Recover the amino acids of this structure.
């Protein structure tokens, strides 16, 4: 956790380390409610500011799906403030409600005349592997 914070010119604080450890300890994207449950002593404003800084530094990315709390997932190591790309889709399981980032071998390229696309988000819903069993 220290390495990530230092490489992004952020102070290494116990709270920032704790927030990062929550994200790393979950396989799927983490909803805001999980941070609130798992943080021992926290101030809501400090949590929001910390998440905002992590978003600005491209340490994490935000996933907003219809009917869900905002979720947060860790960015890939090659993601930076210069090249912030997420070539994956966000999958929501209809049964267990988890949201995961799923890598795609081929990400669709969409071109719209008269528009410049800076970011493209793909979302899908269905049943995850665990819930299909």
């Amino acid at each position: 956790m220290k390495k990530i914070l230092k490489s992004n010119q952020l102070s290494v604080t116990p709270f920032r380390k704790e927030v990062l450890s929550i994200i790393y300890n979950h396989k799927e994207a983490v909803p805001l409610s999980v941070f609130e449950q798992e943080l021992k002593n926290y101030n809501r404003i400090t949590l929001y500011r910390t998440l905002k800084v992590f978003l600005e530094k491209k340490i994490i990315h935000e996933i907003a799906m219809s009917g869900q709390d905002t979720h947060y997932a860790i960015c890939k190591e090659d993601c930076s403030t210069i090249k912030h790309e997420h070539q994956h889709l966000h999958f929501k399981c209809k049964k267990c409600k988890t949201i995961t980032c799923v890598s795609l071998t081929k990400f669709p390229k969409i071109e719209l005349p008269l528009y410049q696309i800076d970011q493209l988000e793909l979302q899908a819903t269905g049943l995850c592997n665990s819930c299909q069993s």
